[in-house]
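Researcher: Next sequence.
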Amino acid sequence: MLVNSVSPSIYIQKKISSQKTESSQVEVNQTVFPSNFTTVDFTNMSRQDLRDWSNEQIKSGKMTLDDASPFMFMSLDIPVSGDYNLNLNKKVDFFSIVENGLDGAKSNHDLTSLKLLEKALNIMKNNQKNNVDITT
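Model: Next structure:
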């Protein structure tokens, strides 16, 4: 499943029917997603950039679908009113979004969300372009 673009069953069918060699897959990934996706700046990136990055991580096998789910939700910006006009190119600090989510999960004793967000935070730290000191 690609974040916000393809259902899981379609993704699995494409994956099974696609018998590309490893070298041709690398070539395709480099064409679609340039090398600037190897490290990213989660402190100043757009929701579209986050979607593109997480999709690349899934396609390249660097991240599982379960690990990608918090990134899918972070790439959305839907206000409580439901009146959303998404600006996918507005820069966002995703570290602060995760921090707020961790605080909420802790205060609500939501262990499932807490684990997902902690894992997302670790993934973000490992892929962050510059060192970031975020304490959980």
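Model: Helices lie at 8-17, 22-32, 47-59, 65-74, 94-107, 111-127. The chain has six helices and two strands.
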